[in-house]
Amino acid sequence: MIIVSSEEIISQKILPYDLYDEKGTKILEAGEILTPGKILLVRNFETLYKKEDKTPAQKENSPKPSYTAGTQENYYDTRDDIKKFGPINKKSKIDFETQIELKSGYVNAMSVFNQNDVLRAKAMILEIRDKIIKDSQLIRKNARFFSELKLLGEHKNIHPLNTAIFSVFLANKLEYNELQIMEIALSALLHDIGKIKLTGETSDLSKMTKDEESAYKKHPLIGHRLIKTELKLSENIARVALQHHERMDGTGWPYGISSTMISEYAQIIAVCNHFDNMTSSATNLEISNFREALRALLKAGSRAFSPKPLYAFVHMLSYGDTTSFEDLKL
Fold it and tell me: Which of 20-29, 118-127, 157-166, 317-326 has the lowest mean pLDDT?
């Protein structure tokens, strides 16, 4: 391992090598965008390391060309990023650079959380939250379709991000204040964190055995505990993890509560959570485009979801989004 100075690191736009602390724990991965939050993280370490170069230093340490937002023609070879983090949504109003940054950031945050480095994971999650809120402000006026907001990739890695993106847009539609939107975004990012302790490969209950279903239905309880005791966040945020599968008519789980017993934040995120599941083929419903998903959401109606966030969501963007899921991939 070779010591590397923080000045060398922060002079880069994109980190050209994996970065380690003095214990050999990976802090950041090669290819990550060096955002202000990551630079702040780097400055917190007295000594940083990279692995010894096995190719000429000049070639190894030269940064990759930067992304050009929203243009495929000038976008550098993304094959490695696509292989690692999933395909790019070519129709998205979220530029290519940000799509990869959000996905890589979330994957790395969960990896750090699994290593029990809770404080660093929490800082990384907060940075993702702030990035989503900031970018939503920039693209809100230009977005017409739900397909223009969605990230693509492995469901467990992009579902919390998509739920957060949809939730921020919905919270703005419902005219929540800045602090509430920050709480809603963070709640959405963490609503499924209880799944980190599960081993199953599917979120579709219809494909589970009874034992698998029983274990899966504990993830809201696990998530509530992790948010409260490890991440040490508020009950408002933890309650979303606990209640996002509850339904207005009392047919949800884990407790079967109904109506106003379900928190407002959980009511918002329940709509966004279900919509992203449907548009990710993570349900047993045969849905091929975003308009069909909106129809299915309306069919479930106020029996399942609170009317206020449900109808605000449906009318938030154009109902005529017939884009198929396959047509999004770069």
Answer: 20-29
Beta carbons of 270 and 246 less than 8 angstroms apart = yes
Task: Write the Ramachandran bin of 15: left for phi over 0, alpha for psi from -120 to 50, otherwise beta.
Answer: beta
pLDDT of residue 297: 97
Q: Which residue has the tokens 């100075």?
A: 5
Query: Do residues 10 and 147 share a domain?
Result: no
Residues paired with residue 289 on neighbouring β-strands, in sequence order: 324
Cα–Cα dist 175/9, whole Å? 40
pTM over 0.85: no
pLDDT at 159: 97
Alpha-carbon gap, residue 107 to 86, rounded angstroms: 11
> Number of structural domains, the chain?
2
**Alpha helices of the chain — where are they, by DSSP H?**
6-10, 36-43, 57-61, 79-85, 96-114, 118-139, 155-173, 178-190, 210-216, 219-225, 235-243, 264-278, 290-304, 307-314
Tell me, yes or no, whether 91 and 222 share the same domain: yes
Q: Are residues 60 and 115 in the same domain?
A: no
Cα separation, 303 vs 93, in Å, equals: 33
Cα four-point dihedral sign 245, 175, 161, 238:
negative
Q: With cut-offs at 50, 70 and 90, classify the pLDDT of residue 51.
A: confident
List all residues 6 or more positions away from 30 whose beta carbon is below 8 Å from its beta carbon: 15, 16, 17, 18
What is the bridge-based pairing of β-strands 19-20 and 26-28? antiparallel
What distances in angstroms separate CA 281 from CA 35, 162, 275, one per listed residue? 32, 14, 10
Angle at 97 between CA 93 and CA 98, to 5 degrees: 60
